[in-house]
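Example record

One chain of 509 residues, shown exactly as stored in the release files.
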Amino acid sequence: MKAPLVAAAAGGVILSLAFPPLGLDPVAWVAFIPLLWAIERSRTPIEAALHGAAFGIAFFLLDLRWVSIPLTVHGHFQTLPAIALLVAMVLVLTLAPAAFGWLTAMFARTGWRPAVTAAFTWTALEYVRATTLGGFPWDLAGYTQGDRLVMAQIADVTGVYGISFLVVLVNAALWEVLRRWISDDRPAWALVTAAAIAVAVTLGYGIDRLARFPAETGRRGFPVGVLQANIPQEIKWTEEARDFTFTAYENIGGAAVNEGARLLIWPETSVPLIFGPRSPGWKYPCDISTRLKAPMLVGAPSEIVEEDGKSRYYNSAFLVDGQSLRYRYDKIHLVPFGEFMPLSWLLPIGPGIAAREEDYTPGEFMTVMHVNGCPDFSVLICYEAIFPDLSRLAVANGARMLVNITNDGWFGDTAAPYQHFRMARMRSIENRVPLVRCANTGISGAFDQAGRVVRSIPLETEGFFVVNVPPPTDLKSFYSQWGDLFAWGCIVTVVLIGIHSIRRTVLSS
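Predicted structure tokens for this chain:
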């Protein structure tokens, strides 16, 4: 049992190499082979589940090791509690790979080869991980190919889950070839052919899509200015740094306006005060907008005082235009432990580490904002950009551009900002709309409808850019209209295989 455990864990390590910071995406096409070998060697489904867990623990520990940074540096957690929280998070996420091992072994017992079931099972479980218990679709297998634009274009039909499916399918085909070669059995021509056809169709489709959405080479479009002031997280909320923050944004905003920007975007919670009745300082951004003669999308925590005197706090985005607040969006999908503390009724240890006075309240509506000449847009705050359903909701409501404002300064110079940047890119491909991303400390950037990086600002750099967003089109992708049909197809397939396996087991007993 020791060798299969080591092999499975090695597979998890290999998969982690496909993600930033190294980003060795080709290794994703072989990373699952050690896990499939370990499952093949398992004597029972429980043992196969342990091998799946070894794969998951190795992968998530390496991929999410940055989680300890915001906990210890900004959340004032001691080292041991921070490590314990990371381990707990990893163990919960590992339930999916463990279930993959168990199901794959169970199906194999009734004649369903892992080479046939693996891609369906892994994809179905990724979707479950992404959508249950609040969901955490961070670094799904499909994101390994996020920078391979020809391969990634299929996401406008299948979402990122179709790319995950293809990655695991190729792994399964290669494993079957290797397994039969070792056992001197007949080559697995059918499976290899199916995988080769799937890859060829995906590449052909990607080439066609890239040709249909060519790179913009002119200056046509609405000029949007993205501001990255690079305010250190450590000083961001200090009284002494408030004037410095506003001055920094006004200075780079003025430079962007001089280059033609007609809308300025600030990052998440870039306004170092709470918008609300107890804080008259919210007028500072309005004053800056008036002086620069440009509307601004700004991120700020906000407060609403209800009739009973109780305050509710939100992580919000406001469109200010001169002295008026034209639109407001309150973040819908909050970060556990960051913006709210789960099970606070059971463990009253205070608000999330990013909350100012108490836990944030989730918003209820996806706002669509309008600025004359600019495509109508909706805002995704921070890690809302990793949830495909929120982007689809925005497009369904009429948005023709997505704006992702974030503060990745919590993570310092770790893999997290690079991973976050790659995942945000997939939303532009899935929905065939431009996505503009503004981060406090980086990485800021703009993606076109094919996911190309049009402009960007590196991590931990002060600067700005002006990007011309092309006029909106009425074209809607299959994915934006129909959603996760492909993922649900994988779930239905797994259920049907499970029913068949149960029937065979009952009939043979």
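Notes: The domain at 222-471 is CATH 3.60.110.10 (Nitrilase/N-carbamoyl-D-aminoacid amidohydrolase).
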